[in-house]
From TrEMBL:
InterPro entries: AGK_C, ATP-NAD_kinase_N, Diacylglycerol_kinase_cat_dom, Lipid_Phosphate_FormReg, NAD/diacylglycerol_kinase_sf. It comes from Seriola lalandi dorsalis. Pathway: Lipid metabolism; glycerolipid metabolism. Gene3D superfamilies: Probable inorganic polyphosphate/atp-NAD kinase, domain 1. One of its GO terms (cellular component) is mitochondrial inner membrane. Its cofactor is Mg(2+). Pfam families: AGK_C, DAGK_cat. Its EC number is 2.7.1.107, 2.7.1.138, 2.7.1.94. This is Acylglycerol kinase, mitochondrial.
Amino acid sequence: MARVVKVFRTLRNHWKKSTFAVCVLSYGGYWLYGKHCDSLLRREACLVAREYGRQQISPQERLRKATVILNPAACSGKANNLFEKNAAPILNLAGVEITVVKTDYEGQGKKLLELMEETDMLIVAGGDGTLQEVITGLLRRSDQDTFSKTPIGFIPLGSHNSLSPSLHLLCDNKVKDITSATLSILKGETVPLDVLQIKGEKEQPVFALMGLRWGAFRDVAATISKYWYLGPLKTNAAHWFSTLREWPLVRDVSVSYLAPSLRPPDLPPQKPPRPNLLYRIIRRLKNYMNPPVEEPPKVEEPEKWEEQQLSTLELFIQTHNKNPVERRTNDSLMICAEPSDFTVSEFITVGNKKEEDSTVFTKNSTKLEASACQLQLPEGAGGFFNIDNEEYDAMPVEVRLLPRKLRFFISAERKEQLLSQTQ
């Protein structure tokens, strides 16, 4: 008993050291518990992947080949370690023959895709920038009509992963996000996604999956990281300081757009069975006795562009890829423009919401559906576009929708969740 009393007396006399030691031990225990939970998640995912690897294949079949475009600089240089620890073991256990191609500098992904050979699946391991480079390089190929049919998997390793909520169930655990995204590739369920073709007057087109953003909220979002020392107040501070430098932050833009086109019915996943021989013979005899009348070629009508002048704080041209399984009557892109009559307090409030989700717009915003649009900026208008969270110089551009151009792997759980939201 005397020894216990002596220990408590020592802790009381050295209470600062004791408090520090308790904090260190508590944090160490929490860190070790987190590492243990991550190991359990990897183990569970590897057990699932091993079942795919144990499936028998016939002698004529070959292993599935996957080309991985990995950006080691993503996630502050941690992407390579995250991929090797969490995604690569799952793919190897599943019997997938993977070829990892690492990018060394910005823009290399476009060049790699222009030279890449045919593969069974393409996996992008990185963030928004890596994904945008890959699809741009893919759709710039001369054989892009056939190459674009290759299914694409996205493993979120970047600081910005805008497409992930459309394809995977997300949580606060990075390891679980990576392992679940990798398992969705093995399960093989895909969904078609729209693509935006963004073309300037001189340069080659750039392609995007989410959209093009331009305006005051975008400019402020690019400066928020400079106010890191303000902690949770940095977003409010960035918006407030921007209003002190210039107010109002209204942008004038001329938007010309084409009406949306009707969406054709979805094609069946498999070709219908070939009719029997007797049916084919009768059909050919009918065509021989009564040959079908050739219809005259249709005369293409000139495109009818409508023009609208907008004064806005922010313009966002976006796809419907936020919910790719939603059934729509039209193939269209959305032109969203915020009103220009915000007060300073409203500007700060809306800016906080857009920092969490840039696709959120107020009720009074202007929304137009179109199949293509042209942006004409006023003379002297500088600034930058955000194209899938990548910065480009602002210039007059034409944005055209490529409906259901690419197919991406999606988790079955996320697909069911998105379907339930549309009902």
